[in-house]
Design a protein that fits this description.
Elements (H helix, E strand, L loop, with lengths): L3 E7 L2 E7 L8 E7 L2 E12 L7 E7 L21 H14 L9 E11 L6 H15 L9 E8 L8 E4 L3 H4 L4 E7 L4 E11 L1 H29 L10 H13 L1 H12 L8 H14 L7 H23 L14 E5 L7 E7 L2 E10 L5 E5 L2 E5 L1 E6 L16 H14 L12 E10 L4 H15 L9 E10 L2 E6 L3 H6 L2 E7 L4 E8 L6 H25 L13 E6 L5 H5 L4 H10 L2 E4 L4 E6 L2 H15 L7 E11 L2 E7 L2 E6 L20 E9 L5 E4 L3 H5 L30 H16 L3 H19 L5
Parallel strand pairs: 5-6, 16-17, 27-29
Antiparallel strand pairs: 1-2, 2-3, 3-4, 4-6, 7-8, 7-9, 9-10, 10-21, 11-12, 12-13, 13-17, 14-15, 18-19, 18-20, 20-21, 22-24, 23-24, 25-26, 25-28, 26-27, 28-29
């Protein structure tokens, strides 16, 4: 194949699609580029495998080399399992292309998207979807594409003072966007929507979808030009004649019995029910046509096809839903909070037979999730995880790592709540929410969203608005269609659309659309969003009757957290040399202390007392102490021969010299003080090296400087004039002058009076010791 390339302009950015040079043994391949972001998409058609569903697999492979990075782990340098973001991108691509494959086509198709280069500005997900569409379009694989996708942003106040919709915004633009919407579309209809929205109205969302349609139509036009140049002839797919004939026989001979199966399938999401009828039809067909009788697998497929067609016909022609509800009627709703005694917050939300138990856990900011990708590292302080075990549908099955579906549903509920989660300055916690699906019969992701709101409010998280969600469905028959509110699992399987909408009473926060047909129109989207809003407000009313607002306090079992903002130049004082100060705070208080580069200090502990003690300690460390300040309960920490070191604030000590301890002569500081004593002290001075001199003298005593009065007798050290009859000292002449000179030199070298006093005390101590030294 010759090297061929095209350029497409989308939202003032150029996309280049190239083929014929790389991965030539694949069925088809496309190398796509926008800016310095590049992806390689390969499509391979495999063998015919009848698994009961179309065996399409989409793998999105992130390589750290794409961003010039090496994995941070010390021992493992190879990329591991796909990240959640990679799985979600693969799901978006799968959901965008799957509806356009013929239902009769059963060959294995594997699509691998490898991210080769990222520039940090242009996201590779949209580029990957467009490249996948082009690779399928030029391949011989039967597919009713091409499709295209764009990301839509929305800025309320752009530079011109007006609202602005942005096609494929960059990262810098997305910081100001109220909308993050990915729309996959054909030239006329919408196939897939995935959106996170900051409580905006339905009208804004609809306008964004319309503008996405305009941009996508231009991309599809260019891909079709590439197909005309190098596209391979599509493989013809023949219909299964045996299946078609079996469907006709069941419709003719067993329609009433199929109709009787509907009530059996209403209460369960699994496909069980009808096994006896399959056996009956098989035995009858085997007796009538021993040589040409269809097998049980074919009969089961035909039976399900007739069942789904009957449900569709009942809804569109008779407005009769499988469980007897009206078209826009919700199932019975109930909810509870505080159902688990030791968790930080919990809630149960039930809609019909769909039941979700959600638990909220609060933790220290240091427990936030670190995410490593080719574009760098980022952290998440709010996470939502979703689990749907086999028992939720009444089956026994394998338990293991989360499936792609579970990861996708958890991400949807996370996206729905994200706009109302308080920032860490307001609520300095890492938040993890887990939804356990206890029973499933349609719309478990929206039940998880509602349950998350209940659990967060029960945990005392001050969310900005309560969030609820609903799943809407679609049944089409020729030119007619009906929009369904709150679809059952059976209506999901037999219908054409699963449109999930979450939001508050102010607006939408999340959207997820999947279809099984070749797309839906703007009118159908508008009608669906209107019905979803009505249902959402009804559900919110029911939820708020259970818990009207977030609790004032977090659970007694949740960690207690405080945040301080300290000057950046004080960070060193809090940490200390080699981290000694902060380690001491942690060991003494039992609290966890984290210091950020911007001066944010987060203190967390299981008890309020530990947090308060650590906060007081840190505030003391950064506080500027002024001369003249008085501290009532300063604690004696160390005693030396010439004085005592006293802690006036946690981590801040000063020295009280013996001359400042009492108006009387103090020979030994231990005669006045003991370690651990609480004393009242006054700050005398703070020298140029930050050392603090303290005094225990106040008022007139302080004015005397702490010197003992001249005595007339009694105890105390004798004055030199009162020699007690001893002869006067000899005059050493030059020797005294030399000694005086040495003292002056020493004073110049270390002029601080405390140092001189310490030196004199040491000299006196050595003299005393020499008196008692035994002769050799």
């Amino acid at each position: 194949m010759e090297k061929t390339s095209i350029e497409i302009e989308v939202g003032q950015k150029k996309i280049t699609l190239e083929t014929g040079e790389l991965a030539l043994q694949a069925t088809s391949s496309i190398l796509a580029r926008t800016g310095d972001t590049m992806v390689l998409v390969t499509v391979v058609e495999g063998k015919d495998i009848d698994l009961g569903y179309f065996p399409l697999s989409v793998e999105y492979v992130e390589r750290l080399y794409a961003g010039g990075r090496i994995k941070g782990s010390r021992w493992v340098k190879r990329e591991g399992r796909p990240s959640d973001d990679a799985i979600l991108t693969a799901r978006i691509i799968d959901r965008s292309i799957r509806p356009l494959f013929p239902k009769e086509y059963k060959k294995q198709v594997q699509i691998v998207i490898t991210v080769l280069s990222v520039d940090g500005e242009n996201e590779p997900d949209i580029l990957s979807l467009i490249a996948t569409s082009a690779a399928l379009a030029i391949s011989p694989i039967p597919w009713a594409g091409p499709v295209s996708a764009v990301r839509m942003g929305f800025v309320k106040e752009a530079g011109n003072g007006k609202m602005e919709y942005i096609v494929n915004p960059g990262r810098a633009e997305m910081e100001f966007s109220e909308l993050d919407l990915i729309a996959s579309q054909t030239a006329e209809k919408t196939l897939m929507l995935e959106a996170g929205i900051k409580e905006e109205s339905e009208e804004i969302v609809i306008e964004a979808i319309k503008k996405a349609q305009e941009a996508n139509s231009q991309v599809i036009l260019e891909i079709n030009k590439l197909v005309k140049k190098i596209g391979a002839k599509k493989t013809e797919v023949k219909k299964d004649a045996v299946l078609y004939e079996t469907i006709k026989k069941i419709e003719k001979n067993y329609k009433a019995e199929v109709d009787a199966l509907i009530p059996l399938r209403v209460s369960k999401e699994s496909g069980s029910g009808g096994e006896d009828l399959v056996d009956k039809i098989y035995e009858h067909e085997k007796m009538a046509n021993p040589d040409d009788a269809p097998d049980k697998k074919t009969i089961s497929k035909a039976l399900e096809s007739v069942l789904f067609a009957l449900i569709r016909e009942n809804i569109i022609k008779k407005s009769k839903r499988p469980d007897g509800r009206k078209i826009d009627q919700l199932r019975e709703i109930s909810s509870q909070v505080s159902v688990l005694p030791r968790t930080h917050g919990s809630g149960v939300f039930q809609r019909g037979n769909t039941q979700a138990l959600t638990i909220a856990t609060l933790g220290s900011p240091r427990l936030e999730q670190l995410i490593e990708s080719a574009e760098g590292e980022e952290t998440k302080s709010y996470m939502h995880h979703y689990s749907m075990p086999p028992y939720s549908v009444g089956e026994a099955g394998r338990m293991g790592t989360p499936s792609r579906r579970e990861i996708g549903h958890g991400a949807l509920a996370e996206r729905a709540l994200e706009p109302v989660i308080p920032d860490q300055k307001t609520f300095p916690y890492t938040i993890r929410v887990v939804s356990e699906i206890l029973s499933s019969n349609g719309s478990t992701s929206m039940a998880a969203t509602c349950g998350s709101t209940l659990a967060l409010m029960d945990a005392g998280v001050p969310i900005k608005s309560p969030i609820a969600g609903i799943a809407m469905g679609l049944m089409t028959l020729e030119e007619k269609y009906v929009i369904l509110t709150d679809i059952l699992g059976l209506e999901d399987f037999s219908g054409d659309m699963d449109f999930k909408v979450a939001g508050s009473d102010k607006g939408i926060t999340a959207i997820q659309l999947d279809v099984k047909i070749n797309g839906i129109t703007i009118d159908q989207i508008t009608e669906t969003l209107a019905g979803a809003k009505k249902a959402r407000l009804f559900i919110l009313e029911k939820m708020l009757a259970t818990i009207s607002k977030s609790r004032e306090e977090v659970s007694t079992y949740a960690p207690k957290i405080e945040q301080l903002q300290i000057p950046v130049d004080k960070i060193g004082e809090v940490i200390g040399p080699g981290g000694r100060v902060i380690k001491n705070i942690i060991s003494q208080t039992g609290a966890t202390v984290d210091v950020e580069d911007d001066g944010t200090v987060t203190i967390s502990a299981s008890g309020e007392e530990s947090v308060e003690k650590a906060v007081e300690w840190i505030n003391g460390l950064i506080r500027e102490i002024e001369p003249g300040e008085i501290f009532e309960n300063a604690e004696v920490k160390r005693i030396l021969p010439f004085g005592a070191f006293v802690e006036v604030l946690p981590g801040k000590e000063g020295m009280v010299h013996v001359s400042k301890m009492s108006t009387e002569y103090v020979k030994n500081p231990e005669d006045v003080l003991s370690i651990g004593d609480k004393v009242k002290v006054r700050v005398v001075e703070i020298d140029d090296q930050g050392r603090m001199n303290l005094s225990m003298l106040f008022g007139e005593d302080a004015d005397s400087g702490g010197r003992p009065p001249r005595r007339e007798g009694g105890d105390g050290p004798p004055r030199r004039e009162d020699s007690g009859g001893r002869p006067p000292r000899r005059d050493f002449g030059d020797r005294n002058q030399r000694s005086e000179g040495r003292r002056e030199d020493s004073a110049e070298r270390n002029p601080h009076p405390l140092a001189m006093q310490f030196r004199r005390e040491k000299q006196e101590q050595r003299k005393r010791e020499s008196l008692f030294r035994k002769p050799r």
